[in-house]
């Protein structure tokens, strides 16, 4: 009984002390969420504190970079609010000698976004075929960043979505003047700007085709020379000046009869084109031409060269050489491989080794004339069977005549392939001569390596 009385007495003594201590715990009144415009200095509310005996101090527990607090008043300040990371969590703490209390609110920073307004563009012009790059657009007003888009423009024109600069690789006069409209957009609006682009036709210089300008594409014999006539279906090279306004190669088959603004005609028949440049054209003689003298002309748009007369023969053999002038190492492979029959290491970037006696080789050539299963001009042989020459050529290796096991078109347009076996008595060395003869006409001489 005595112990119980002592406990009650102690509780009676402590209760006023506990109540007094609780009454002096600092408490911050609720602070509502707030907002401010980006870039406008922010000053927070003055926090109210209850239950505390003085003095108290304030500290910033969490807040965006650059925010500060007055340790006496508890007022937070932020000189340059930014939307990055918004809404921002702000937590302040009040502390006295007894305890502390925190209060948190959210501060949303709003961007003062203004719809963009484009500065005007002046009309422009460009010469046909000359790559066009538009001006860098500017804004008379509006909040950046903006996104640029192309609303109207000629086919092939593109725009940089960040800079607003338009590009056009190959301007054409067709449809000129062209209307170009670009749009600047941000989160609250957009604005368009339009200008006209006039494409003027480039002055076309008439192509010049001098005498002896048409040659066998393999042997490089001129079609006007003795034994240098071109054959239907063969590959030819045409030399001159201003033959094309660009350098361009065919990218697919059937070969086109126009590349850039260039066409070539044989007796008015347009020839399939492999490649064009200002000084040289590689083409295929149409298969439908008949032997005799024919007129060759190069045209660029409305301009045309003078007509040159060349001879077309049923056959005009030429063996391709790696020198691309009809002499030296021939375009001759070990059969059924991509290995050149040449001295080892003689051809940079290509595998090469001498051919062995009794080994088969493939000789690549042009001008062997008509074939069975003849493909249309500009096309490789179809899958309907081999395209074999109507006349079988003879071949010599180092002066030794060898039998021909195949003579016909390869898988490439206008390219013939002749397969032969190196004879057992062929001479050996790094430059053994190879010659083809067909229809009484002898090809140029190339070399191979034999061991």
Structure keywords:
mainly beta, single chain, 40 strands, 451 residues, 39% strand
Can I get a quick summary?
With 451 residues, this protein is mainly beta. It is 5% helix and 39% strand. A five-stranded antiparallel sheet has the order 19-20-25-24-21, with no helix packed on it. Strands 22, 23, 26, 27 and 28 form a five-stranded antiparallel sheet that branches.
Distance from first to last alpha carbon? 128 Å
- Biggest pleated sheet: 5 strands, antiparallel
Strand order of the largest sheet: 19-20-25-24-21
Q: What percentage of amino acids are in beta strands?
A: 35-45%
Count the DSSP helices. Answer: 1
What coarse outline follows from CA principal-axis ratios?
A: elongated
Overall pLDDT score: 91
The Cα radius of gyration reads 44 Å
Question: What's the count of strands?
Answer: 40
Low-confidence stretches: 4-23
Proportion of residues in helical segments = under 10%
Structural class: mainly beta
What assembly state would you assign to the polypeptide chains in this entry? single chain
């Amino acid at each position: 009984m005595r112990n119980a009385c002592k406990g009650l007495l102690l509780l009676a003594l402590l209760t006023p002390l506990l109540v007094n201590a609780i009454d002096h715990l600092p408490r911050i009144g609720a602070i509502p969420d707030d907002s401010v415009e980006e870039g406008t200095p922010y000053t927070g509310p003055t926090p109210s504190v209850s239950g505390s005996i003085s003095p108290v101090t304030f500290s910033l527990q969490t807040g965006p970079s650059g925010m500060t607090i007055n340790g006496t008043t508890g007022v937070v300040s932020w000189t340059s609010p930014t939307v990055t990371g918004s809404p921002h969590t702000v937590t302040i703490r009040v502390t006295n000698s007894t305890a502390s209390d925190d209060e948190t609110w959210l501060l949303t920073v709003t961007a003062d976004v203004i719809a963009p307004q484009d500065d005007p563009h002046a009309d422009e012009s460009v010469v046909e075929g000359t790559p066009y790059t538009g001006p860098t657009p500017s804004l008379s007003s509006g909040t950046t960043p903006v996104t640029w888009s192309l609303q109207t423009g000629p086919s092939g024109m593109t725009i940089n979505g960040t800079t607003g600069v338009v590009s056009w690789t190959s301007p054409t006069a067709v449809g000129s003047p062209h209307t170009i409209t670009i749009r600047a957009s941000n989160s609250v609006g957009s604005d368009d700007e339009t200008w006209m682009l006039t494409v003027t036709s480039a002055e076309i210089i008439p192509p010049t085709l001098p005498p002896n300008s048409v040659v066998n594409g393999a042997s490089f014999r001129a079609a006007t020379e003795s034994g240098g006539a071109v054959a239907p279906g063969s590959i030819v090279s045409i030399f001159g000046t201003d033959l094309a306004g660009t350098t361009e190669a065919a990218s697919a088959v059937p070969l086109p009869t126009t590349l850039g603004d260039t066409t070539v005609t044989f007796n008015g028949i347009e020839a399939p084109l492999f490649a064009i440049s200002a000084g040289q054209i590689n083409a295929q003689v149409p298969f439908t031409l008949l032997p005799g003298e024919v007129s060759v002309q190069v045209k660029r748009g409305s301009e045309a060269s003078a007509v040159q007369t060349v001879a077309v023969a049923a056959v005009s053999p030429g063996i391709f050489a790696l020198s691309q002038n009809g002499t030296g190492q021939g375009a001759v492979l070990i059969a059924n491989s991509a290995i050149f029959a040449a001295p080892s290491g003689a051809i940079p970037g290509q595998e090469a080794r001498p051919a062995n006696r009794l080994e088969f080789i493939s000789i690549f050539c042009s001008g062997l004339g008509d074939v069975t299963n003849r493909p249309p001009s500009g096309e490789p042989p179809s899958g309907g069977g081999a395209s074999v020459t109507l006349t079988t050529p003879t071949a010599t290796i180092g002066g030794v005549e060898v039998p021909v096991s195949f003579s016909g078109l390869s898988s490439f347009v206008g390219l013939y392939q002749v397969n032969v076996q190196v004879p057992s008595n062929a001479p050996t060395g790094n430059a053994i001569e190879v010659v083809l003869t067909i229809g009484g006409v002898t090809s140029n001489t190339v070399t191979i390596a034999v061991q």
